[in-house]
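@channel sequence for tomorrow's demo:
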Amino acid sequence: MFLINWIREWKQMKRDFITESHCENCDTLRIQVEQLRLDNKMLLDRLLEKPAEREPASPEVFTPIKTSASRHTPWSVRRQMLETEDREKAKLLKNAPKPADAVSDEDVKELEREVGIAAAERESQAS
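structure tokens (generated this afternoon):
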């Protein structure tokens, strides 16, 4: 009997010690540790799950990768190619139709003339 009572008292003392040493910081840490364990378990499950079966892509879909011509061409040849491309772009831009709202040279001259007349009228009125 003595031994059973002693074990009972020892367990009671242990329970009392655990409940007394229990604090708010410990609770917070316990909650965070539990959350981290759950997150890690979810991540591990996600990593270990078997991927869904997919159909292999048909070979007609793939196009071969072409190597860049600039790797094997000397700089002088490449420079000539770039210059010809730039000349063609410049020709296209020069010959491109201008938008309807673009101002022509005649419009600019007419506007300058009107402004000059208005300036002359102001000067004559001021004197």
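heads up for whoever presents: The CA atoms of residues 11 and 74 lie 88 Å apart.
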